[in-house]
Amino acid sequence: MKQSLETEFTAFVAERGPVLLRIAHALTGDPRAAEDLVQGALAKAYAKWPRIHGDAEAYVRRILYNDRVSGWRRAGRQREITMAELPERPGREPDIAERLALRQALLTLPDRQRAVLVLRYLEDRTVEETAEVLGCRPGTVASQASRALAKLRELVGGDLDEHSWSMEGSR
Amino acid sequence: MNLEDKVRVTVHDLADGARFPDDLAAGARQRGRRIRRRRQAGVAAAAVALVASASIPYALLHRDEPAPQPQPQPAATTSRPIDWGKSPLTLPGKVIVTAVSRIDPRLADVPSADGSVVLDRRTGRYVQLPDDYHRVWGAPKVNRAVVSGDRHLGIIAANGEITWTDVTPGPDPQWSPDGTRVLATSGDGFAIIDAASGAVSRHATFDETYACPDECRFTWLPDGKRVAIPVRDITADRSEAKLDMAVKVAIHDASTGKRLETIPVPGAPADQDAWSPDGRRVVLKHTSESGWANRVIFDVETQQILADLGEQDAHFLPDGRLLGFDRPGARVRLYDVRGRVLEEMSLPRSFANRTVSIGMP
Description:
heterodimer; A: mainly alpha; Rna Polymerase Sigma Factor, Chain: A; Arc Repressor Mutant, subunit A; 2 domains; 0% strand; disordered C terminus; B: alpha+beta; Neuraminidase; 5-stranded mixed beta sheet; 4 helices; 26 strands; 34% strand
């Protein structure tokens, strides 16, 4: 690859890598898995860089999500992960405990449902945009999001709509 | 703060836990070069495979595949063609191979040795397509193929020129029986692409889109004027652990999008040419407990499953018989409508794990 394109690729990773890693970490919940996911997507982009460098970020994002949910597609439907124990219900400190419980519950969702939530709530994508990234129908996005929220409510508890959270420490 | 707000905060919390490694670009570059080397090696290997079948034993390539279902002895067998790339390859039932598509690399990290080829009807030879296309669906007549790129579907005409459309790739697009149009399932309905002009007409079918099962794909009916989409039982509980069950198909007018009728059908019509020429029978996709999807023949009039073909793909031919491709892409079988094997042919070894499109000579 020409030196100018190599330089461009390096600059792209430096500039957009942190954003991509945030997405990957929200998808995987694990720093190493997130790094591997992003590195794999960037590797595919690098292999095609002369052709896609003008719109590299959209390409990498699509690969990122597709790689994460491709196991779901290959196997038909991925079964939900059964939690060994139910997440801890909010106790004396409802804010922190509930946040942790919700985080833990979020990580037990099937990959595709979590991908939908990340696109909708981290990237603020519309249902249509989410469907395009995941290569499915908007109706599927809506039903996956609905199922995911219902599952979270079931796992964490029915009073999720009652407590207010401090936004400190969150974006 | 409602649940959605809390999920938003939690997803941002999770994202905040990311750490940026020092060598991300270097690692990606190293892996990217490996991918490029594999692709370059793959193109060369695929070119060789076009003119001479590989001699790797079948068992070595398919250790993890389930054993093929036992089939009754066919009335006739045809040996594996050796030098198939230089003329249209004829299959049982007197149809020809119009394209052999690699596995979608977005869904599985496969080297492009499993590249795609398409029939050039003008020369009668098969030509290899560039790596840029993810999947290829050969045209049954006239044109060469519809292909999926990173963002949109493209039509390759008889002269090899490609026309990109603004239709996003979704479930497998379907060629019309006369090979002049392509039916694509979209997020809110279906789109018909005119292959000659690339013009797209879109039709929204919100009710069916809402009630569509996981296997959600429009198929052409044999008259080329109507299309069908499976509909699930919307009152049934849905589960991540199993596929939705279709209970009927909704028939729509292909030119207006208007719903015409619904027919009880317990499954999703599968593949190109899913319907028999008289429209009385349909090939359905049936997913077993093990997750493998077989094809079954369903009689719409009697509401009976006539046969479980145990194949990965099956297509009705114009004479009412069926052609079925097995899962590893090793054999193709000609069936009568009762599922009896009439003829069997071994496919070239280079077809392994790819999908085959068929058409008329």
